[in-house]
Amino acid sequence: MVFGGAGPLMNAIKMRMCFNDIHIYDTDQEKWLKAPEIEGAPRKRMSHCAEILGGFLLVHGGFNTEQKQVLNEFGLFDLETQKWTKLKIFLQSETGVQRIDDKHFHYDHDHSHVLGYRQMHSMNAICDNEYFEDAN
Fold it and tell me: Per the confidence metrics, is the pTM higher than 0.70?
């Protein structure tokens, strides 16, 4: 499965196109299939990271070429229901709850535990088997 990414460079507008579509590799037919457009997909992006966690595809960050903006959004795609959920991540602090994926989030304090805006990064899935065994 592939989400979004960079497309061809459009010389006329000096911009690389980016996408928010999903392509799935069909191992039986040995070819890539484009999923139909799905409502609620995260903004178009390139240089993001994505990882499959159980039955979900988690997408974070990247760069939107149309808005020329580094992103700090999370998207969660349910592989079973084929639906997107936009995640909002909150940080509990002494001054109250603060949304960390907001463009107004300030980095003037120690936020070493906050992921923040980024592009060209990677993500790895780590599964805690004991947690999942206890949950069943």
Answer: no
